[in-house]
Input
Amino acid sequence: MSGQTGSSAPQQSRNVPTTGSVVTKPAITPSRYEAPLLNDLGDNYNNWSRTMKLLLRICGLLSIVDGTTPAPDITMDPTGYAEWYEKDQEALLQIIVTLKMEGQNCMHNMQTSKECWDRLADQYEGEGNQQIIYLLEKLLMTPFLNTEPMQVQLNALTMTTQQLKVAGLSVDDKLLAFLIVLRLPDSYVMLKTVLSSLDSTKATSKGMTSQILAEECRRICSSGGDIVAFYVKAKKGNKPQHPERNKKKCSHCKKKGHKLQHRLSKSCSDYHSTQR
Output
């Protein structure tokens, strides 16, 4: 019996923690998730910030980043401070790895996660209105392209207006409707004329969007292909042609830019001397 008791003791000690031992719960790390990268221009800051808050909250780090769990006094509670510092540095790392090269260079002096988080907020949604100016410029100055699907470009426009709203500047829907018309490329000149002549009291961004997408669909159907083939062809057709490729080659001197000029009593050497 004593032998059996002795043999079972080690087995029990491996499965049951002894008195005074600390059982640690495995940490949930952000590697399980696709954390977005924050662009250097900060145009995706709002989406990045929302996602990172969720990520940090799941990892138990958000209260350290937003300052609701301050650092314990290192003299009065050195153990508590050491635990807090470890979490703070983990949070700082999680933020830094989602920044691109320029963003990381700007944050290399940040010592705490809260300091880094607040610096990013000041830079991209902060008090200097840089974000609003950037978004307004993007809203007002970016035209639609012939070489990209209209739905993608319209979605980007909608995202810009949502970002402006979050930043504190709402865009009136009537204004947005006419901005959509102004963005249309030259190839949509007929549709632009039609939409511009509509009753302004009935103009809506949804209505303008529907008209543009219907026109795009008509063009794609007329081409006999699908949307992918349509825009692949559009991109190819948009490439500038090198002028030398369209010049004819002389059958005598093999140089481009002229035909054999002997019948006109003008030699090749005479021709090239005039081009210098």
Residues 1-23, 25-31, 261-266 have pLDDT under 50 and may be disordered. The chain has 13 helices and no strands. The chain has two domains: 27-124, 134-237.
